[in-house]
Amino acid sequence: MLVELRAVSKRFGDRLAVDRLDLTVPGGGCFGLLGPNGAGKTTTLRMIYGVTRPTAGTVHVFGLDVTREARAVRSRIGVTLQENVFIDAISPVDNLRVFGRYHLLREPMLSQRIEELLDFLELRSHADVPVKVLSGGFRRRLAIALSLMNHPELLVLDEPTTGLDPAVRLALWSRVRELQANGTTVLLTTHYMDEAQRLCDRVAIVAGGRVVADGAPAALILAHLAPEAVELDCTPEEERALGDGMRPRARVRVGRRAILYTEDAAALVAHLRGRDQGDRRPLVVRPTNLEDVFLALTGTSLEGA
Amino acid sequence: MSVSVPHAVAVWRRNASMYRRTWWLNVLPNFFEPVFYLVSIGIGVGAYVTRMGGMSYVEFLAPGLVCVAAMNGASFEVTYNIYVRLTFEKAYDAMLTTPVEPDDVLAGEILWAVTRAGIYGGCFFLVIAVAGLAPMPQALLALPLIPLAGLLFAAIGVAFSLRIPTIDLFSFYFTLFLTPLFLFADVFFPLKERLSPSWLWVAEVLPLLHPVRLARAAFRGTATPVLLWDLAYTVGVSTLLLAWARGGIRRRLTS
User: Fold this and answer.
1) What ipTM score was computed for the predicted complex, to two decimals?
2) Do B18 and A53 touch (CB under 8 A)?
3) Strand A257-262, strand A210-215: pairing
4) Do B7 and A104 touch (CB under 8 A)?
């Protein structure tokens, strides 16, 4: 196991941000830490790279105790923070140079690594202009480049694509896949479930400072819900009337929207249409995704069928 | 965890790489300030003062202003600049994702503040040396006092910056702490000659007074036992405040 958290808690004053959390991240592949805002994701990451000390429990990375050997662990990790941190007045190349020195990289290694990363993250077009004039997508790529200066074995990405447009997100995902293919383990947090589903082999859903479910995305969908989802607008009373006599595997309600999960969407739709006497309300049939699992496990009134 | 010198130097170089681009914007105003005081007060007001402390007024003023230049050089760096990096830019949070530790951040920043004190103090020293106000060779003994005064005010400033809740409090630091020091800590007149004996201890509390007294003694080329106390104060207070700041920066960065 590359990362191993055992019964880790973190208390800030009266607030328990992380509550006896267990987490193991295997080497290779991409691991997603999913959870609503305030679930304790960032605190968990900070404990993994040894900047926040757990109140209780143990954190091991590469088999090393992070609280004792933070420097050794961090020399093998790259971290992209949620907020980009640059020196705005100087160029991407100079920012990379400053950051490389924190890892004690020296010339000619330093310049060589900068050249590699300019190519890998397509930064060359604006490599020598002040960072402050760069676009959001370019800045995010630069932030990732900074965290790759030391050839990390483990790359930690905190909300890598929040606030970016779709084309930029796709481009970043392909870089992340390429890193994985080259043997880097990726640990990311996100609240975009599509991102988690596309990138991650394994995910852990965190709520209230604990892991409430973990596994491969497809396995989580099957374990907690069902492969197909049917959505419709109705009141809870209408839902009861419509659903009389049928058994979806699970249901979730968000306001007026009811989502029913089933192995056989065709049968469920036929049943609903039959009950829905002339009133052809629109139904949406789609594959169940991680977002559904997330909704079912972390919020909204969940009425198991 | 203790300081790793290479990592502290990497932090120092971060600041240096920024400063390299804008140094003339920073150096010019801070450098001219003591020059203006020297000309206005030293030569202008000094024309009406016959002797002070056994020398001409401008000679009396020059060594004190060297220490003021060092104080100012260090102070801007460890107040606004550190606070902005800590709170708004999150520069230290980024450093701490690498093998840099809070102690290295503190050491690198202090080293940088001392460097800037050295730049300002050194430039000003050059001006007064060219003007013939630094008696050679004994005035050269004042050169090591520039980084020492820089260290003292770096330590005071960083300890303050790490404990305040809002950036607005720096106006107190400058107006109610540094300005009175500048005006009363022996730079413009011998404070002790204006204090009644029961209040003499007040003078000894003022941090700037000690480097100023050392610098003046160097210029004069005379040593007295009180200088040992000045040296002990400067080194002792710096050490104590840096030890305190160490706890502060760790708390701010690693909670």
Assistant:
1) 0.90
2) no
3) unpaired
4) yes
